[in-house]
Protein backbone atom coordinates (compact mmCIF):
# COMPACT_ATOMS: atom_id res chain seq x y z
CA UNK A 1 0.00 0.00 0.00
CA UNK A 2 1.24 3.47 -0.81
CA UNK A 3 1.51 6.26 1.71
CA UNK A 4 -1.31 8.17 0.03
CA UNK A 5 -3.72 5.23 0.37
CA UNK A 6 -2.80 4.70 4.01
CA UNK A 7 -3.19 8.38 4.88
CA UNK A 8 -6.42 8.58 2.85
CA UNK A 9 -7.85 5.58 4.67
CA UNK A 10 -6.89 6.98 8.07
CA UNK A 11 -8.42 10.32 7.15
CA UNK A 12 -11.74 8.69 6.19
CA UNK A 13 -11.80 6.82 9.48
CA UNK A 14 -10.96 9.97 11.47
CA UNK A 15 -13.53 12.11 9.65
CA UNK A 16 -16.17 9.45 10.07
CA UNK A 17 -15.68 9.47 13.84
CA UNK A 18 -15.81 13.25 14.26
CA UNK A 19 -19.01 14.41 15.81
CA UNK A 20 -21.18 16.44 13.41
CA UNK A 21 -21.60 19.13 16.05
CA UNK A 22 -17.83 19.56 16.31
CA UNK A 23 -17.54 19.72 12.53
CA UNK A 24 -20.21 22.44 12.40
CA UNK A 25 -18.36 24.46 15.07
CA UNK A 26 -15.07 24.19 13.18
CA UNK A 27 -16.74 25.27 9.95
CA UNK A 28 -18.35 28.23 11.72
CA UNK A 29 -14.98 29.26 13.19
CA UNK A 30 -13.24 29.10 9.80
CA UNK A 31 -16.04 31.08 8.15
CA UNK A 32 -15.84 33.76 10.88
CA UNK A 33 -12.10 34.13 10.29
CA UNK A 34 -12.60 34.39 6.53
CA UNK A 35 -15.34 37.01 7.00
CA UNK A 36 -13.16 38.97 9.42
CA UNK A 37 -10.29 39.07 6.91
CA UNK A 38 -12.51 39.97 3.98
CA UNK A 39 -11.75 43.70 4.25
CA UNK A 40 -8.03 43.23 4.81
CA UNK A 41 -5.55 45.02 2.57
CA UNK A 42 -2.06 44.01 1.52
CA UNK A 43 0.78 46.30 2.62
CA UNK A 44 2.06 47.94 -0.58
CA UNK A 45 5.72 47.80 -1.62
CA UNK A 46 7.05 51.29 -0.88
CA UNK A 47 10.66 50.25 -0.36
CA UNK A 48 13.10 52.27 -2.52
CA UNK A 49 10.65 55.16 -2.80
CA UNK A 50 11.41 58.60 -1.38
CA UNK A 51 9.65 59.00 1.97
CA UNK A 52 7.17 61.58 0.60
CA UNK A 53 6.07 59.29 -2.25
CA UNK A 54 5.88 56.32 0.11
CA UNK A 55 3.63 58.32 2.42
CA UNK A 56 1.36 59.30 -0.46
CA UNK A 57 1.09 55.68 -1.59
CA UNK A 58 0.15 54.52 1.92
CA UNK A 59 -2.43 57.30 2.21
CA UNK A 60 -4.04 56.16 -1.07
CA UNK A 61 -4.69 52.79 0.59
CA UNK A 62 -6.02 54.52 3.69
CA UNK A 63 -3.24 53.43 6.02
CA UNK A 64 -1.98 55.52 8.91
CA UNK A 65 1.80 55.61 8.86
CA UNK A 66 4.81 56.96 10.68
CA UNK A 67 8.25 57.89 9.42
CA UNK A 68 11.08 56.54 11.54
CA UNK A 69 14.65 57.74 11.07
CA UNK A 70 17.13 55.04 12.08
CA UNK A 71 20.21 55.56 14.22
CA UNK A 72 23.67 55.19 12.63
CA UNK A 73 24.87 51.62 12.22
CA UNK A 74 27.47 50.15 9.89
CA UNK A 75 24.80 48.23 7.97
CA UNK A 76 23.18 51.52 6.86
CA UNK A 77 26.35 52.88 5.19
CA UNK A 78 25.17 52.15 1.64
CA UNK A 79 21.59 53.43 1.85
CA UNK A 80 20.21 56.26 -0.22
CA UNK A 81 19.24 59.37 1.77
CA UNK A 82 15.54 59.87 2.56
CA UNK A 83 14.52 56.66 0.79
CA UNK A 84 12.43 53.97 2.48
CA UNK A 85 14.42 50.78 3.07
CA UNK A 86 12.16 48.88 5.49
CA UNK A 87 8.42 48.61 6.14
CA UNK A 88 6.59 47.07 9.10
CA UNK A 89 4.39 45.08 8.86
CA UNK A 90 6.11 43.30 6.01
CA UNK A 91 5.28 44.10 2.40
CA UNK A 92 2.41 41.99 1.11
CA UNK A 93 1.05 41.16 4.57
CA UNK A 94 -2.73 41.13 4.79
CA UNK A 95 -3.71 43.66 7.48
CA UNK A 96 -6.84 45.53 8.57
CA UNK A 97 -7.24 48.96 6.92
CA UNK A 98 -6.68 50.76 10.24
CA UNK A 99 -3.20 49.22 10.71
CA UNK A 100 -0.38 51.64 11.53
CA UNK A 101 2.47 51.20 9.05
CA UNK A 102 6.05 52.09 10.00
CA UNK A 103 8.41 53.22 7.25
CA UNK A 104 12.12 53.39 8.02
CA UNK A 105 14.63 55.68 6.33
CA UNK A 106 18.05 57.26 6.87
CA UNK A 107 18.96 60.88 6.20
CA UNK A 108 22.32 62.13 4.92
CA UNK A 109 23.77 62.58 8.43
CA UNK A 110 22.82 59.06 9.51
CA UNK A 111 24.39 57.64 6.33
CA UNK A 112 27.60 59.65 6.86
CA UNK A 113 27.86 58.46 10.48
CA UNK A 114 27.10 54.89 9.35
CA UNK A 115 29.88 55.08 6.76
CA UNK A 116 32.33 56.13 9.48
CA UNK A 117 31.20 53.19 11.61
CA UNK A 118 31.57 50.83 8.65
CA UNK A 119 35.08 52.14 7.92
CA UNK A 120 36.06 51.68 11.57
CA UNK A 121 34.66 48.14 11.53
CA UNK A 122 36.59 47.34 8.34
CA UNK A 123 39.83 48.65 9.89
CA UNK A 124 39.20 46.60 13.01
CA UNK A 125 38.62 43.51 10.86
CA UNK A 126 41.89 44.07 8.96
CA UNK A 127 43.82 44.53 12.23
CA UNK A 128 42.30 41.34 13.61
CA UNK A 129 43.29 39.44 10.47
CA UNK A 130 46.85 40.83 10.71
CA UNK A 131 47.06 39.79 14.36
CA UNK A 132 45.82 36.30 13.49
CA UNK A 133 48.38 36.08 10.70
CA UNK A 134 51.20 37.28 12.97
CA UNK A 135 50.22 34.76 15.65
CA UNK A 136 50.14 32.01 13.06
CA UNK A 137 53.61 32.96 11.82
CA UNK A 138 54.95 33.05 15.40
CA UNK A 139 53.77 29.50 15.83
CA UNK A 140 54.47 28.13 12.35
CA UNK A 141 57.88 29.68 11.58
CA UNK A 142 59.80 28.08 14.47
CA UNK A 143 58.12 24.76 13.77
CA UNK A 144 59.05 25.04 10.09
CA UNK A 145 62.68 25.84 10.97
CA UNK A 146 62.86 22.91 13.36
CA UNK A 147 61.38 20.55 10.77
CA UNK A 148 63.78 21.82 8.10
CA UNK A 149 66.81 21.31 10.35
CA UNK A 150 65.65 17.79 11.23
CA UNK A 151 65.23 16.93 7.54
CA UNK A 152 68.72 18.27 6.79
CA UNK A 153 70.20 16.17 9.61
CA UNK A 154 68.43 13.06 8.40
CA UNK A 155 69.52 13.63 4.82
CA UNK A 156 73.10 14.33 5.97
CA UNK A 157 73.16 11.08 7.94
CA UNK A 158 71.85 9.14 4.90
CA UNK A 159 74.49 10.66 2.66
CA UNK A 160 77.24 9.61 5.11
CA UNK A 161 75.98 6.04 5.15
CA UNK A 162 75.80 5.82 1.37
CA UNK A 163 79.30 7.29 1.00
CA UNK A 164 80.85 4.65 3.25
UniProtKB/TrEMBL annotation:
Residue ranges of domain PASTA in the record: 37-107
Source organism, top-level taxon: Bacteria
PROSITE patterns membership: PASTA
Protein name in UniProt: PASTA domain-containing protein
Annotated organism of origin: Liquorilactobacillus nagelii
Amino acid sequence: MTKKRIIGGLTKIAVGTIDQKLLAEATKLVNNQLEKRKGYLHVPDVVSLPITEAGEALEKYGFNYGKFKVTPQAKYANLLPNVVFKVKPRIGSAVPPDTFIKIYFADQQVIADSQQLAAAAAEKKVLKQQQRSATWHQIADPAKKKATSLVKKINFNRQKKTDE
